[in-house]
Amino acid sequence: MTDVAARRGAGGEQLLTHWSLPAATAAALASGCAYVALHNPFTSQLTPPCLLHSVLGIYCPGCGGTRAAYDLMHGDVVGALHMNAFTTLLIIPPALFGLAWWLAASVGLNVPRFTVPRWAMWGYLAVFAAFWVLRNVGPLAPYLAP
């Protein structure tokens, strides 16, 4: 089955377009953001407790991420940095950049293709690991813990 055949229905009508998957992803992310924006994670339990924190008593890199997203959606950048600096600085901006890139491409603007170099991915993983360690031990732990 070819790629074109996979995208056509029994009558030959086109089922998916080139932007269907990104649009569905954007819609899912938007609905998740709307839910977090409307339900305060500081006063209600939006997500299950972190298993790593519950069992071992240490913070994972994602601990505080939902609260950071909530703070950002309400304009509190300092509060978001306090809840989870990694999410605030290294996950949300690239996600917004990717969304803007996709929107520009979907309306027909000529946007360049980009690839992430291997060294950047390893650097990202190194920062991820360093954040995980530093938020649990050492002099920065009180400032990096949610």
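Above is the first protein from milestone M3; the second protein from the same milestone is given next.
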Amino acid sequence: MALAPMANVTDAVSVGRWIEQISKNRYNLIIMKKFKNTLQKGSVRYIVFKDRGKWYAVALEFNIVEAGEDPREVLVSLFEAIQGYVKSARKIKARPHILNQFPDSEYQLLWDALKSGRGREAERIPQVYAFGEKTLAYA
């Protein structure tokens, strides 16, 4: 479906229709996308790292962050948060896009560095306790 150029839009009603058409097209693109995670299966990447004296655990696809003084504690807390998040999504029969969010660029860059093995060499990489993927079937 082709969109009318904005230059041809002359009144408020036309602008409203044009915006509505853009919104529908964006929604259709989201719906047509094949998702990695569904309510039945998938996985979530996680990283536990230390920054400025505090430990953080991050679930990349869900944008969940837990913080604390002990890395084991924040990892357990993150896994509990993931479990609750997935359980709630299943309970309300949520659409899959909430299980497939775009991670914060800082965390994505850290993940890429850790997966490639460059994480140990780079001077700006924080101290990492653990990273990996958790299967959602058991969440």
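Note on the second protein: Strands lie at 43-51, 54-59, 64-68, 127-135.
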